[in-house]
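User: C-alpha cells for this one?
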Amino acid sequence: MLLGYSTYFTTMIRSNADPAVDMYNVDNPVSLAGYLSRDQYGDWPILYGPDFQDRAPRVNAGDLYVKGKTQYDVAGKVTVEDWNNTPSSHLFPRMWDGGNDRGQIDAYRGFSGMGEGDVPTMADNIKYLISYQVSWMYLRYFMWNFSGKQNDLEGFGNVRDGNWITGIPFIDNALYGDQSKLPDSIHTNNKSYNRMYMLPMILGLIGLVFHWTRRPKDFLVTGLLFFFTGFAIVVYLNQAGFQPRERDYAYAGSFYAFAIWIGLGYIWVKERFEKFIKGPAANYAAAGLCLLAVPILMGSQEWDDHDRSKKTLARDVGKDYLESCPPNAILFSFGDNDTYPLWYAQEVEGIRPDVRVINYSLLGTDWYINELRYKVNQSAPTDVIFTPEQVQGNNRDVVYINNVPGFDPNKSYDLYDMLKNVVASDDPKFTNQTEEGESVNFLPARKFTVPVDLNTVRSNGTVSASDSVVSSLQLEFSKNKNYLLKNELAVLSVIAANKWKRPICFTSPQELGNLGLSKFIRLQGLSYRLLPVENGNVDNDVSYKTIMEKFAYGNADKNGVYYDEENRRHLNSIRFAHAQIAISLAAAGKKDSARNILEHFDQHVKESNFPYGMTSNQNNLQDYFSFRFLEACYQSGDLKLAKKVAGSVKKDVEQQLRYYKSLGEPMPDEQMAINAQMTIQNKGGNLSERQMEFASDILSSYQMLMQMTDWEKQYVTGPSSTPEKGPVIQTK
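Assistant:
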C-alpha cells in the first residue's frame, strides 16, 4: 500500500511546478487527501439514509485547512450531510436524491411505479433498485456486450433509445414494439445497431455452469470478481436517475470476468463434439464454431462503432474554438467535453498558446481561481479582484443577493466597485452568520454597469468603426436569481477587472442569460465574444475568414468515420454556427459568401458520417440544427444544397412519425401532433403511454415537416397553392 501511494508524490511534484493543467492543485498533503478521496464529487448514502422527500441536514465535521503562505490556515468548516438524521432515514436507501435538475425524482417515481405525491416505501426502494440501478444501469450494459444493442442514443427508459436487443425480431418486437418501424438513422443505418443473437451470453452461461460443476473453488474466485466489479458497484454507487451520460465503463471489470466463462464455454462445446467426432477434428470443429459464433460475430457487429482510428474531432473542436478567438483572449469553456479538447490542442499540439482557457465549472474552487493569477504558456495572469484569502476554502462559495440599507434596488451600480468593496468586504453589514457558524456575504443589488472606455475599445480593435458602442454594459440578473455561486462571481470579476484590455470569449452562451450578459455577445466562428455592443449577433467578416481558412472537422470528409452521440453534439454546434453565420451574411446581402460557408461545411462533412436528418434523444435537436441549416440554404439561394438537406431531414421526420404511430392507435400525423401538443400542455391528449414519452418529438417532427413544405413552395415551386396548416407549434 505504501509503495502504491508513493506514486502520488509525482502528482505533488508536478503541481508545485504550476503547470497549465493542474487539477485540484495537489501541491500539499491536505489537498492531496481531498484529491484522493474525490471530495469534489460529493457524497451519498449507501447503507443508511433518507428518501428523496427529506433533505439531509449538514453538520460540522471539523475545520477546513488550506495551505497558507507560511502554515496551514483554517478557511472555514468542513460540512457533510448527516444522512442518518432525517424523518425518513432507513436501512438501504435507494431513493435518496431530493433534487430534480436532471429528473431524479421523476426517475424514482417512474422506475418504481410510484404515483405523484406518493411517499416512498421500502418496497418502492427495492423496485427502483431492481428496475433502474440493476436492470437499466447494469444488465442493459451487460446485454449490450453479449446480446446486442439497439442504437447509440443515450437511453432514459423509453423503447426507442439505447436498449439491449437480441437481433431476433419476435423477441425484440415483443420487448420494444415493431423494430422495423424505427427510423433508419437509429436502426439499419446506425453503426451501434449490433445483433449478436445472444450467442456470446449463451456460451458464457454454459461456461459459468461448466466452471461451477468442474471447479467450484475456482468458480467462486471468478464469481466474486464478477460480483464485486458488477453488482457490488451498483450497490455502492447508488445512482440516482437520470444520469448525465451512459455509465457502462463503470462495470467493465465484470464484463472481463464473464469473458472468462465464455472461454470456458468453448471447452464444454469441445467435450460435446468429442462424443461423436474422433481425434483432433473435435478441437477444430469446436474452435471453428465458437470462433464464428462469438468473437467473429462480435467483431463484425461492433468494430465499426468502436473504431477511432480516423477520428480527430476532439482535437479539431478545440482548434476551432481557439482559432475563433482574437489574440491574447480569455476563453470560458463549459464542461469537461469542451475543456479537455482545448487543453489538448494547446498543451500537446501548441495551438494558440496565447489564449487563456478558463473552465467555468472549476471556477467554483479556490485552487482554480488562484491558478488564474500566474502566467500559462503565452497567456498573462488574469485579475480576479479577490485576494487568495478572500476565496480560500468555503469563503464566498455562495453570495446571496439581498437588500442592504443604503442601496437602492432599482439603481445600477458599478460592478467592479461592488465586487471589490462590498462582496470582498467582511464588514458585518455585508455579511451574516449561518446556523453552522459560517459567514456568508451579500450582494445588495441585481443591476450593474461595466463602464466602456471608447478610446480603449476603438484602439485595441474590440469594436469596429461601424459598431454602435454603448457607454457601459447594463447588466441585470434574472428576477428568480437569489444568489451567485463562486464560479459565477469569478466570471463577473474577470469581466469587471479586465476593463476591455483583453478579448473575453465563451464556448457557449447558455450560462450567460441569468447574469445579463447574453445581449452583449457576438458569434465569431465557433466562439462568442463579449462586446460593448447590444445584440451584435454575428461578426460576418471575422467568422467567414476563420471558417474558410482555419476550421477543421475531425476527418468527417473521410469515408467510414464513426461519430457517437457526444461527437454529434459537437458537430451539431459546428453545423449550427455555419447556419447562423450564413443567415447573417445573406441578410447583409453577401449571399455568395453565405453559400460558400454552407458548401464548405457540406464538403468537409460527409453525410454518410454525419447525416443531416437523424433522430436524437434531445427533443429532435439534430434535425432542428439541420432545419436551421436548411433555412440558411434557402436564404442564401443555394437550392441544390437545400434539396439535399431537405430530403435527408424530411425522410427522418417522416420515418419518426411513422414510428410514433406504430406505438399507439393509428391516426393521421396532424391529429397525432395535436394530441402531442395537448399532452405537453397538460390538457389531455389521446396518446398511448409509449407515445406520450415522445410527445415533444412528435410535435417538432410534424412542425418541421409542415415548415419545410412551406419553404419549398416559397423558394422552389412558388406560392401556387395554399400552404398546409398544422397545429401552432414553436420551432425553438
